[in-house]
Structures are given as C-alpha cells and as structure tokens.
C-alpha cells in the first residue's frame, strides 16, 4: 500500500513538473514573444525557455549560411543570444550591399537592400546623382539626388528569401533636406509593390506637409492658367471641402535611427514560391526638377 502511494506521488509530481526537455519542446512551438513570457512562470520554464532547443527553432533554418555571408564575424555563445543579436540590429551581408535581421516578436526575416543594389534611372550620371557616404547610414554609400525631372527607383527581392505565411511591407529609407522637400511638394510620388499578379500601390508625399499644401495650390493654379487642368480638378478646388492631400494614402515617419521611411506597399508571402517581388518609388508626371534626396535603400520587413 505504501509503495503504491509513493508511486502515485511520483507520477503526480512528474505531471506537475514535466522534464525540462519536454517543456522546451512545448515552448519552441510558440513564438519568441511567448517564450520570454513563459520564462516567468517557473524556474523549470525559465531554464527551458533559454535552451538552444527553443531558440534554434526561432532562428532561420539556414542561419549558418546567412552568417557565412556576413561582412564581419558574428560572435555568440548561445542560440538565444544570436536571436536577440539579429533582432536587435541588422548585420551586413553580401559584401555590404544588403543587411539582414529578424523581427523580434515573431522571428520573421527582414532585409534592407542598399541603394547600390537598386535600379535608379540616371543613377550613374554624375550631373543627376552622386554616390556619397553619411555617418548614420547602415551602408558605406548612399545615393544623393542632384537634379532630375524623372525620378524612378526600383528594387527586387526573391520571395523565397522571406519568411513564409507572413505579411510584409516594403519601405523606402531616405532623408531629404529643406530645399529638396520643397521640390517634392508639387506632385505626389507613386509607389508600388508587385508580387505575381498582386499589386499594392500608394500615392505618397515625402515633402513637408505645409509646403505641399502651398505648392499644390500654386501648381494647379499654374496648370489652370496654362489651360491643362481638367474640369473635375477645377470643381474640386472651388469646393469648400477641398483637401490638398485627398490623394495621399501614405505619409512618411521618422525612424529610431534618424532616417525617414515611407511605405511603398504590402504583400503576403505565402509559400515563397511567387518568384520576384518588385518595389518602386516614382515621380515622373510633374516633370519639374527634384533635388536634395538621400536614398539609403529599401527595407522589407513583416507588417505588425
């Protein structure tokens, strides 16, 4: 009888406190965010949640291959440390032409394409663009717009490089000086992201908002004077509810690193079998000259 009682106690104890390896396997089926939360449950969960079993599952399956492409050696003592290193900052890969990181809450892959990897119309013509360096840039070179009337920037990335079953967005990472902001305030810029048959497009403005309102009115008055502004626009302008930003669907925001970003579009990466994803930022309709734009690159990251 006593033996049976001890056996029941042992079985009951095992049920309450399962082996750490089993706990680790269960935790690995959650997410990085949940793993951090579960570590506060008990010492068993904390130990399991910090194990390599858990964090190996949150890292990309090809993380060793990615690390081999890093410009500088990546040093770490555990897979948990590696995860937080990659989710805390990007590492430069492919001779510094691209950067890679992880989204902290999900572990999804993030990339930034440097300006050098982008297709920029007239980008190699010194009178229109020049390549320079800025101390707060992730990359050694950024593209500086000198003076163009046709602005067209395109980037591409393979869908198989991204995390599956994940909603992504692409962002232009840039800076613009005061004089440059005025040159972008006459006409909205157009952006798009294309994957397969799916197209996501926006009208954006990277200019100062007050400057945009003033110059939009001036520009449309000029077009009306030239007789090329269509009647619907004239009717809108005379309307008391006229909104100079009615066509703008996305506005830029300031990043923690001091750069600006504006969304180019979003897409869902299903199985990573849709081939190439093409992203663009353009302003070719106004045909007025633009200047003062610094392009660091295009970032592709999960849309949370």
Automatic annotation (TrEMBL):
Q: Which InterPro entries match?
A: F-box-like_dom_sf, F-box_dom, PP2-like
- Which SUPFAM superfamilies has this protein been placed in? F-box domain
Q: Its domain of life?
A: Eukaryota
Record Pfam families: F-box-like (PF12937), PP2 (PF14299)
Residue span(s) of domain F-box = 18-58
Q: PANTHER family, from UniProt?
A: F-BOX DOMAIN-CONTAINING PROTEIN (PTHR32278), F-BOX PROTEIN PP2-B12-RELATED (PTHR32278:SF111)
Spell out the protein name for this chain. Putative F-box protein PP2-B12
